[in-house]
Design goal:
This protein is α/β, with parallel strands linked by helices. It has 16 helices and 17 strands. The radius of gyration is 21 Å and the shape is globular. Bound molecules: N-(iminomethyl)-L-glutamic acid and fe (iii) ion.
Length: about 425
């Protein structure tokens, strides 16, 4: 087995053995950076594998045979909790790098209107959409919001997700955005997994600022961002840059403020219409998300950089769109692609990364292997945590997902089912009931 240092308390040791396919996603040391092009398929599968975790970190990864011969393990065997995976598949825990979990109610009226033929933009213009979720969040206590987020995190755990990006964005006042971020922090503190918080104060221009969006942008830049940064409530700032939301110029102002206050940036881009991306590259965005509409020129600009294209096909599915982001054009053009759920009440009410992967395969022609890498190691790149998340390698956090299947390709194949049998989050094992 390939090992890292073992100084830790064996009482917190976890050994997974008898793994049918151990999908490591291990890094090729010659190739730094996110997975692009043909490398997106390189899963580093070990058959009949084993993983040893100590105190929340992965220390050994290899074949079960090697593990059993390991001198340290033989000596400490009784102190190690051993999990027989019975030939199941083990993946790195999913990294869901785009979610909006701070809302109160589903938008069932929007759902019905869309079924009757109205579009997302038409519903938003008629008073539905994001703006119709604001009042409830403004009125709900931090504790009640946190309790809702805890439930979502538990559901995600049961589906194999161990790292989650969580955005605010349904309050859109200084107080309610900070309250949303505090709710994310409080929910995260009781969850063994890892949460990366994002301030999405620029989700849409709230009704009270309609016709004077610049005033709202100034509140985002001069109040929300500095206060969230000072209190370390967010690592990233996101902007919904599209028609009906924020303009490229407003997005640049918001990015400028974020960078000035030491926060990373990311944006919803190209969901409804195309926006030229090059003006934003100077801010070194962690990701552009959605990317349904993107020019050839921007694809070549993004190739082999570490700004990820995060694709969220759940949104296309739920909005009943015929078109999906052109993943093949992006991947074959060398752009690093991640997959995420975009969990939110308007366009993608799913926490299932397996569902996002299935849609990626069937509607975006990504191979199952590409979908696995995009949902794990490239998700970790999208959150700038690839040094500790997204692959099963010594030294990384012990984030694993055990699936009750024989072949990893079954995960996107059995769509709508949850085959996750257990999840390990920073070394804490949560088995499904
Ligand atoms: O990613 N496009 C912006 N934000 C969400 C939708 C939010 C909502 O409709 O509530 C998205 O699709
Ligand atoms: Fe989103």
């Amino acid at each position: 087995m390939t090992s890292a240092k073992r100084k830790l308390q064996p009482s917190d040791a976890l050994l997974l053995v008898n793994i049918g396919q151990l999908v490591t996603l291990r890094t090729d040391s010659a190739k730094a950076g996110p997975r692009c092009g043909a490398d997106l398929q390189e899963l580093g599968i070990i058959k009949e594998g084993a993983v040893l975790c100590l105190n929340g970190k992965i220390v050994s990864v290899g074949s079960a045979k090697d593990a059993m011969r390991d001198a340290w393990l033989r000596k400490n065997r009784r102190k190690v909790a051993e999990i027989d995976c019975a030939s199941k598949v083990v993946l790195p825990g999913f990294v869901d790098s785009h979610t909006h979990p701070v809302f109160v109610a589903p938008r069932l009226v929007d759902f019905e209107k869309r079924i009757e033929g109205a579009s997302y933009e038409e519903i938003a213009a008629a008073g539905g959409g994001i703006r119709s979720s604001l009042e409830a969040v403004r009125e709900t206590s931090k504790g009640a919001l946190a309790a809702r987020i805890v439930t979502v995190l538990q559901e995600m755990t049961a589906h194999g997700t161990t790292t989650v990006e969580a955005k605010s964005g349904y309050g859109l006042t200084v107080e309610s955005e900070l309250k949303s971020l505090e709710a994310i922090r409080d929910a995260a503190s009781g969850w063994p997994g890892t949460v990366v918080a994002t301030l999405l104060g620029a989700h849409v221009v709230p009704r009270e600022f309609q016709g004077c969006s610049q005033k709202y942008v100034e509140i985002v830049c001069k109040e929300m961002i500095p206060r969230a940064a000072k209190r370390k409530l967010a690592q990233f700032v996101d902007v919904f840059c599209d028609k009906g939301a924020f303009t490229p110029n407003e997005t640049e102002q918001i990015f400028e403020a974020a960078v000035k206050h030491g926060l990373g940036v990311r944006a919803h881009m190209g969901q409804l219409s195309e926006t030229a991306l090059s003006p934003f590259l100077r801010f070194h965005p962690a990701s552009f998300d959605h990317m349904d509409h993107v020019s050839e020129d921007d694809i070549s600009q993004l190739a082999r950089r570490d700004t990820m294209a995060t694709l969220v096909p759940g949104a296309n599915y739920f909005l009943g769109l015929k078109e999906y982001p052109n993943a093949r054009r992006l991947i074959d053009g060398g752009v690093p692609v991640a997959l995420a759920t975009d969990y939110n009440p308007g366009t993608s009410p799913t926490i299932s990364m397996a569902m996002a992967m299935s849609l990626a395969c069937t509607h975006m022609k990504m191979s199952p292997g590409e979908a696995v890498a995009a949902a794990t190691i490239n998700g970790a790149w999208a959150l700038r945590v690839a040094n500790r998340k997204g692959s099963i390698e010594p030294g990384k956090d012990a984030d694993l997902a055990v699936f009750e299947v024989k072949d990893y390709r079954e995960i996107p194949y059995w769509f709508g089912a949850n085959h996750c049998a257990a999840t390990v989050l920073n070394g804490v094992m949560v088995a499904r009931a």
